[in-house]
Design a protein that fits this description.
By secondary structure, the protein is of the alpha/beta class. It is 37% helix and 15% strand. The strands form four sheets. The protein has a seven-stranded mixed β-sheet with strand order 4-7-8-3-2-10-11, sandwiched between helices. Strands 1-13 form a two-stranded antiparallel ribbon.
């Protein structure tokens, strides 16, 4: 952005996120757990929209968590075209994950297993008993690790999701679509999905981008096309008049006529009252009207009792 600003060149910044999933008590937990598994560990969590925080209604927290951990055990590292997740791209990412994992464990979090590394492959991990202050809940992970946290009411869940420097994408799982929509509109995010994950980014017809530290601007969709183009506006005046009413000369009487004309068009009172109140302004502006309006104004003014002044 600094480099572009020197020229200047317009920019769109998509800076990643700390995407959250909100699971309500009435959600289809089997679908939600499958979605969480895919959302968190697709491409080993190295997706800008990777699911990194899961907030679950306390009434179904244990059932959901068990379902997620059970499904986690079925994931296999990729070998050729077979397998579910691949390696990390950089050493720096592993160091980041290690710090987040150790910080969470040191503060009392539970884990599905240790952070096992085999070459560049990291065995996926689910954390729970986490708190909002842990690094795992605030820093972008961008790797195969996800944290699960219980909530007691939906307002608390919304506040927890919004209490983050990132705001790229999120998802809500519930059978009550109307309620999910209402909650989604309270989230400080650039994109959201109900009963689905990650799919937003693959929809070419929808604008995509973030808020807060997730960046600004949109790509894809009509908004994206506008952002990647230069909008040009043009105006053609077909008037044969020698000048416009707002051109020089300026003087107090002309200023007063302008004010009167504005009041005639937009002011209070019945149309006839406004017309009688500002007939001098009508006379002044008659030459600037379109031909059909000019005739109407002429007829109106001729009908006034003081038409001899006209």
């Amino acid at each position: 952005m600094q480099t572009a600003a020197q020229h200047p060149i317009p920019v769109i910044l998509e800076l990643g996120g700390k995407d959250a999933m909100l699971i309500l008590a009435d959600a289809n937990l089997e679908r939600a757990s499958h979605a969480a598994l895919y959302g968190a560990f697709s491409n080993s969590g190295q997706v800008c929209m990777s699911l990194e925080r899961i907030y679950v209604d306390r009434r179904c927290h244990d059932v959901f968590l068990q379902a997620l951990v059970d499904k986690l055990a079925t994931l296999q590292p990729a070998s050729g075209l077979d397998g579910d997740y691949g390696p990390l791209c950089t050493e720096a990412q592993y160091i980041r994950l290690q710090r987040q994992y150790e910080d969470a464990i040191a503060q009392g979090a539970m884990a599905s297993g240790p952070l096992i590394r085999t070459g560049n492959f990291i065995q996926p991990v689910v954390l729970w008993n986490v708190t909002p202050q842990m690094r795992i809940m605030q820093e972008e992970s961008f790797g195969p690790i996800v944290a699960v946290m219980a909530f007691d009411d939906t307002q608390q869940a919304v506040d927890l999701i919004n209490d983050c420097q990132y705001g790229l994408n999120g998802s809500i799982f519930s059978r009550n679509i109307a309620l999910a929509n209402a909650l989604a509109r309270q989230l400080e995010l650039g994109n959201w999905a109900i009963n689905d994950v990650i799919k937003n980014a693959g929809h070419a017809g929808l604008p995509f981008g973030g808020v807060k530290h997730s960046g600004f601007g949109r790509y894809r969709g009509a908004e994206g096309l506008r952002q990647f183009s230069r909008t040009v506006s043009g105006l053609s005046n077909h008037s044969s008049l020698a000048q416009e009413p707002n051109w020089f000369p300026y003087h107090s009487e002309r200023y007063a006529l302008f004010k009167a004309h504005i009041d005639f068009v937009y002011g209070p009172g019945h149309f006839l009252l406004r017309m009688c109140r500002h007939w001098r302004a009508l006379i002044f502006f008659r030459d600037y009207a379109k031909p059909d309006l000019k005739q109407i104004w002429h007829n109106l003014i001729q009908s006034l009792p003081w038409k001899q002044d006209y």
